[in-house]
Amino acid sequence: MTDRGARAAELAANLARVEERIQGACEAAGRARSEVTLVVVSKTYPAEDVRLLAGLGVREFAENRDQEAVEKAAACADLPLVWHFVGQLQTNKARSVAGYADYVHSVDRIKLVNALSAAVGRRERPSLNCLIQVALEKESGLGEGRGGAAPAEVGALARAIVEAPGLRLAGLMTVAPLSGALAGRPAAAFDRLIEISRDLRTTDPAANMVSAGMSADLEEAIAAGATHVRVGSAVLGVRPALG
Hints:
Elements: H1 3-29, E1 37-41, H2 47-55, E2 60-63, H3 66-75, E3 82-85, H4 94-98, E4 103-107, H5 110-120, E5 128-133, H6 154-163, E6 167-173, H7 186-200, E7 209-211, H8 218-224, E8 228-231, H9 233-236
Parallel strand pairs: 1-2, 1-8, 2-3, 3-4, 4-5, 5-6, 6-7
Helix pairs in contact: 1-8, 7-8
């Protein structure tokens, strides 16, 4: 077997295990499998892995660094893929991200809303789907300086996105917090996100996307009601430590 064939077989086996977990979590929660979208986080892995996974039926991929995302999206431009940007985003990168991303999961401040709106105005593609990143630890007064909006800030951000030309409010994103009252309690954290999501839909009923859960806690996210799970290492393998 060639190296490419071996890698394809490895990815297929990993993907099958993740699919089994998602299916099992959906059944346990009384949800249809079609209610949950798998987004594969391909950061640090080559475009060739994206192409192999696309051949296995994966259509949605996420990146968290703009430079890597630009190159990977260009290398796979011939494939019918959906690209999600999930990393912290500086306003000076908004124009670049708007060039390839279908979804931005990390909108957390008004300044970024304005930058993305201006960037979308310069592109020919349709409106950009925006998710508000919720930092649940900030509800406990922690996490200052980290990415994500405090739950109390979600309403104002949602209104800004709805009013911004070229942007569409898609929903919410979170990462299970490492500090605060919900630290080490992903199920409770995701339940809290769902509560915030219900409030959000009073601003825009169509903003029903809930991006939560990763390789370690996708079951808890699906049980809570997540619509999208962001899985990297469980599909692609454990990433090497950065030197």
